[in-house]
Design brief:
It is found in: Cytoplasm. The protein has ten helices and eight strands. The chain is α/β, with parallel strands linked by helices. The longest helix has 31 residues. The structure holds 1,4-dihydronicotinamide adenine dinucleotide and (2S)-3,4-dihydro-2H-pyrrole-2-carboxylic acid (A1CAB).
Length: 275
């Protein structure tokens, strides 16, 4: 089995989800993972003991041994980290960023011209190998690196190679919209508990309802056809849909997608995160 070494710079939520997916993978590559962050050593210790990976608080000391460097810190930290990475990066290495708004062009313009880069937009379902990940490739990526990246992305779930522009536009839909779905799940669960279910049972019925709906959608049937099939004429669902329509449910979701992408673009241009 071939071994590849991955260095994560940034060891937060997204890095953890990716590491979880990678350590569970049983593909043709074995991943040696090193996690690093700016200062949170207890976080590194937790990742080390949970996943059996290496960690360091000084990535500069280990970067040269990495085949892949994953930038998993906030977009606003990219200029400073890329400026340091410039002095360390080696010809064979692939530099991957998962940061919203950064873009392949943001990576390429901050690194020497022949450096291979990829911009990857996963979601947190990477932790169970079920992310829908988007990926845009830089111009210097070799076939061998594509093969390695493909192995890595397959560990996280499904992926699609896109243009940079598409990743910008779809960030909200695949990266952030899971949070919108979880909010809906929360509302359903709260009602189920109010109707007398235990929290565990509420989770089970809501989770299975979402899973069944997602799987039906993946059969290829249009969402409006699926909605119609649920909506018995003159029946109960129509009353609920009427409330959603009065609240402009679909436009609200579309507004949320636009707002997310606008913010991602601002972050990618170096604006600091709002805390
Ligand atoms: N959370 C998610 O679902 C997704 C996040 N992303 C991207 O992943 C990146 C990280 O997001 P989260 O994990 O949610 O944030 P987070 O706040 O949980 O983690 C950020 C990590 O970066 C580290 N860090 C900050 N500045 C650093 C620096 N200068 N050098 C080294 N490490 C540094 C922090 O110590 C922390 O470990 C962001 O760029 C975000 O756009 C992308 C897709 C989905
Ligand atoms: O909230 C964020 O900025 C990141 C980008 C996509 C999902 N989470």
């Amino acid at each position: 089995m071939e071994t590849r070494r991955i260095l994560f710079i940034g060891a937060g939520r997204m890095a953890q989800a990716m590491i979880h997916g990678l350590v569970k993978q049983q593909g043709s590559f074995a991943w040696q993972i090193v996690a690093s962050n700016r200062s949170d050593t207890s976080r590194l210790e937790a990742l080390r003991s949970r996943f059996g990976i290496e960690s360091t608080s000084n990535w500069q000391q280990v970067v040269e041994s990495a085949d892949v460097v994953v930038l998993a810190m906030p977009p606003s930290e990219h200029p400073a980290v890329l400026a340091q990475l410039r002095d360390h990066v080696k010809q064979h290495q692939l530099i991957v960023s998962v940061a919203a708004g950064i873009g392949v062009s943001g990576l390429e313009s901050s690194l020497p011209p022949d450096v291979a880069v990829a911009w990857v937009m996963p979601n947190t379902a990477a932790s169970i190998g079920q992310s829908m990940t988007l990926c845009a490739l830089g111009s210097a990526v070799t076939n061998e690196q594509v093969e390695m990246l493909t192995e890595m992305l397959q560990a996280l779930g499904q992926h699609q190679i896109c243009t940079e522009e598409q990743v910008h536009k779809l960030t909200a839909i695949t990266g952030s919209a899971p949070a919108f779905i979880y909010r809906a799940a929360q509302a359903f669960e709260e009602m189920a508990v109010e109707y007398g279910l235990s929290e565990v049972n509420a989770r089970q019925i809501v989770g299975q309802m979402l899973l069944g709906s997602a799987n039906l959608l993946l059969t290829g049937t249009e969402p409006q056809v699926l909605a119609n099939e649920v909506t018995t004429p003159g029946g109960a669902t129509a009353a609920g849909l009427e409330v959603l329509e009065r609240g402009n449910f679909m436009s609200i979701l579309q507004e949320a997608i636009t707002a997310t992408n606008q913010r991602a673009a601002e972050l990618g241009m170096g604006n600091p995160p709002k805390r």
